[in-house]
């Protein structure tokens, strides 16, 4: 169950078999069915989730009932409402499964114990958060500086699996577009 998690971990930080076994004692497997919630807005986020199999999304819903997708997470990605996880305050986002999914959860308690007891976990966490910050900064830069066609082409080239596995109306939400606008962009790009 933890193969992909440790493959992902050891790409950032090498582990001995003993360290891998020690870390595994802190991990909890979880399965979600399609459309099942991992987290609902207003609940406190109690875990960081690593996706072993499936697709999840993180989103908010505005007063008009419109979804605003912040993130997708496929195999090998982490997902959480990090603010809620770290502060213990209510979550601002929902996280649910777009496909039947298998997750590896790291609870708040496990996270704190791993940071204290396994120095390589602290290094892994720092590298992961740094990478996530860089990705977020790149996304914000593209939103404010690139034409929407270039943003869509960037998404399709960087993350072809998302485009194949996620419904177009959700990709439109992620990009801050209406589904109709995304359809027009896709038609324009396919006719070039």
Automatic annotation (TrEMBL):
Coiled coil: none annotated. Residues 15-115 form the Cyclic nucleotide-binding domain. This is Crp/Fnr family transcriptional regulator. It comes from Rhodocytophaga aerolata.
């Amino acid at each position: 169950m933890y193969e992909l998690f440790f493959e992902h971990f050891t790409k950032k930080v090498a582990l001995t078999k003993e360290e891998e076994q020690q870390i595994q004692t802190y991990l909890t497997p979880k399965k979600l069915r399609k459309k099942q919630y991992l987290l609902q807005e207003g609940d406190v986020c109690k875990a960081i989730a690593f996706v072993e199999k499936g697709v999840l999304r993180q989103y908010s819903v505005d007063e008009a009932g419109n979804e605003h997708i912040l993130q997708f997470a496929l195999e090998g990605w982490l997902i959480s409402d990090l603010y809620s996880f770290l502060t213990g305050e209510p979550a601002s986002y929902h996280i649910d499964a777009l496909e039947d999914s298998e997750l590896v959860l790291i609870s708040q308690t496990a996270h704190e114990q791993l940071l204290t007891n396994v120095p390589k976990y602290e290094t892994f966490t720092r590298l992961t958060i740094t990478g996530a910050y860089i990705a977020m900064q790149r996304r914000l830069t593209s939103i404010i500086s690139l034409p929407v066609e270039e943003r869509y082409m960037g998404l399709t080239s960087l993350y072809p699996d998302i485009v194949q596995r996620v419904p177009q109306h959700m990709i439109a939400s992620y990009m801050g577009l209406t589904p109709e606008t995304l359809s027009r962009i896709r038609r324009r790009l396919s006719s070039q």
